Fold this protein.
Amino acid sequence: MSAGVDEVRRAVVEARRTGKGEEMVSPGLVSRAVRTSPGVRTDAARLRLERAARSELLGAGPVLQPLLDDPAVTDVLVNGDGSVWVDQGHGLVVRRERLPDPRRLATRLAAAAGQRLDDGAPVAEGRLPDGTRLHAVLGPLSAEGATISLRTVRRRAFELAELAAAGLTGPRGVQVLEALVASRANVLVSGATGSGKTTLVASMLSLVPATERILCIEEATELAPTHPHVLHLQVRRANVQGAGEIDLAQLVRTAMRMRPDRLVLGECRGAEVREVLAALNTGHDGGWATVHANAAADVPARLIALGAMAGMPPSAVAVQALAAVDAIVHLGRDGSGRYVAQVAVLRDDGAGGMRSDLALVRGAGGDLAPAEAWPHLARRLDGAAGAGQP
């Protein structure tokens, strides 16, 4: 089979060299190369060859691509020693297979994502043709050698009922999450890397009425809500000359001129917090954003730190956030999976700042139970079906 894949690769290179192929390698180009490659093959053999060629030329190769195609897999990691680690929602597990040359694979994947990866540019981020998110680092930046991090993309958003069945939360938690969408609350979803923030936001956006226009702003498109009117804006990184960059802050300003009903920021991680808070204070209700934090109580400090990157003093961040953010949904993760750990609200701390007070906390049965700040959140959700009976 490897000889056949080599023939297909040569056919693809020749097609692109002679101008008969697309600028980028595409599934159609690979299929044509399989049909025109030397050798007489049965239909079954041709199908196997095309599958192997697509895996090698468009995907992550015969070892990694089957893992990325597994719907249970969220992350595939390759270390400098060639070891392969997989996360299926319950923590990383090492595979028996080892890759002989991680650097060569990293370079090829970066090229497939339209990025440069070499000694002059030893870090690359991008997306593979199938949507998989790639991050690769070469040595000596990575002391162990070339490392590859692959984050799978969901072909569809999970329904909230599916997430609840998987242990995200119980009936009360589902009720509150639905009420946050129905009442057009502005929500921050916090949690650690891999806690399911993007997955939850996509599910929540799938509940938005079809008459509303959703604008998602991300570093790389990941959100895929089940909704008929979703537009995606994604950042453009600077080229090798350092020109042409379009950052998240610029995209937020652009999105506000595109008549959004819901403004969504995939991850708030820098100076764009200024534009996000401003947008949510100018009539754009029902927005969602994610932020990294260890607990809901840490979100105020995180927002202040991000605001400092935009030159905002803590008092200005507090004033904007108190007016803009209606709820914080914090996600946790352990050996049992991902779950809603806390729902909190931002409140004035009486000293010109803000604090995060718990409105709901995860109980022993996995569902959410009212905490001290629940009446405050209930008033915001008043009018949404069932919101008053958590």
